[in-house]
């Protein structure tokens, strides 16, 4: 009986969110007095998988079937279900990502498991019950959820668990075949199109985000956002009206109807802080707001604020970062 | 082609969230409920596809008690043909998925659409559960959906990009922006919605697998620390030395 952790890999590397998930899984294993095994999906190298030992993983199962490089719901579901059966796993942990949620929800039916998504803390297991804390009401609240039954699946929200780093520890990487057939790849993507990400940082995974709203006045001013983002190593984002009028692409829109982010630092420039925008960003650890209106609602949610004109303030911030290094 | 669109009834997006004194339930007092914003994408796209095909039906489905009927009528006013309400409080995602799968099986629907997730529970689970219960493909979250005969071409969001996926009917998709521009009901729609059929059925299926033990509000922020615009650079020092985030 080991805890099974699903790690997503991309271009040979384990994704940052999966390092968090691996850390979560190995801590759950410790709580239950067992070990944590990972099953890798996507394109991985053996060396990077072995490094999952640093997150407390003992063993990694890897199916080298080349068609697993891109996400295929049917194939991933079968692969993980097979690994769970092989390991007799009662607890499966995955990322609350588009892949994790797609596979996790199918797996929960296939394995007759209870499922909690959007989980932000390690479980409480006192008195035989199994409670997890999850975000609810678009980040405006939390719920402690009791997972019933023998099998449980937990999808961990990004940036909510600190990744462990026990330098030098390695996991044993084991070849594994889930005996996938052509039928399992029936829903394989016909084409995968990657978007340009500012500085190569994926918004949903980003540790820092610089975001602009209608106060930026037009797309021609976005270099101010990009310059600061580049200087501090952040991804860029925007409010909904900005993407609605195509100043920025839709995949940068954060909020209730956009992407939910929970970085360590969120810098909002010329954004009013409407409740629907806050819903997607209010679990950020530190929020900085720059707005010329001192009454902007965003200041109520902020840790640091500057009442001022973004066109004046942003270059000063970028300059100050450059002076630091 | 028969479309089934699942809608949930959620607190209006501007609602200040509060719970009952024992923190066990959401406090509905004075709260306006709306169709889940993500579900509006699913509903509008189904109606658009039906119109483009010049035939077929759009059925809306809600798992909920009688108080959800105003929003079911609103979906009919937007352009759905008929509606089914499974008469039960939606206890958890698995319970809801079972009800949807039962209705879908019974009615032999070709396309089952829903929103990416509900803005109250934020589960992002029901799509996959329904697909697995019915043994059909799921595409989630979908940003684009086109149909040609029985084949659908979808754009599915992945972290950092998108996938173009083709599936044959029947299938399930969970929808998000920018799939379409959600429609609002017009006067004629509101008038005709009153006479459209709304069937109420009783739930079947197993017990829920999860239960909320308690809700909590996030801890209050300390209050904002303001830095004068003239000394904007000071902020960067605070972010490094005090907040330790850069
Ligand atoms: C169902 C629903 C879902 C929604 N989902 C989302 C969502 O997911 N994400 C989202 O963002 N919104 C969402 N919205 C929209 C939301 O309600 C707000 O309309 C939106 O967030 C406002 O964007 P904004 O702050 O950029 O623009 P505005 O409200 O126009 O605010 C612009 C701000 O910029 C400031 N400003 C102007 N010029 C300057 C300057 N030179 N320097 C400094 N500050 C300046 C102004 O003081 C103002 O506060 C949703 C709405 C609904 C109804």
From TrEMBL, chain A:
The keyword Chaperone does not apply. SUPFAM superfamilies: Adenine nucleotide alpha hydrolases-like (SSF52402), DHS-like NAD/FAD-binding domain (SSF52467). InterPro entries: DHS-like_NAD/FAD-binding_dom (IPR029035), ETF_a/b_N (IPR014730), ETF_a/FixB (IPR001308), ETF_asu_C (IPR014731), Rossmann-like_a/b/a_fold (IPR014729). Keywords: Electron transport, Transport. Residues 3-192 form the Electron transfer flavoprotein alpha/beta-subunit N-terminal domain. Belongs to the ETF alpha-subunit/FixB family. This is Electron transfer flavoprotein subunit alpha/FixB family protein.
TrEMBL record, chain B:
SMART domains: ETF. The keyword Transport applies. Keywords: Electron transport, Transport. Coiled coil: none annotated. Gene3D superfamilies: HUPs (3.40.50.620). Belongs to the ETF beta-subunit/FixA family. This is Electron transfer flavoprotein subunit beta. It comes from Hymenobacter volaticus.
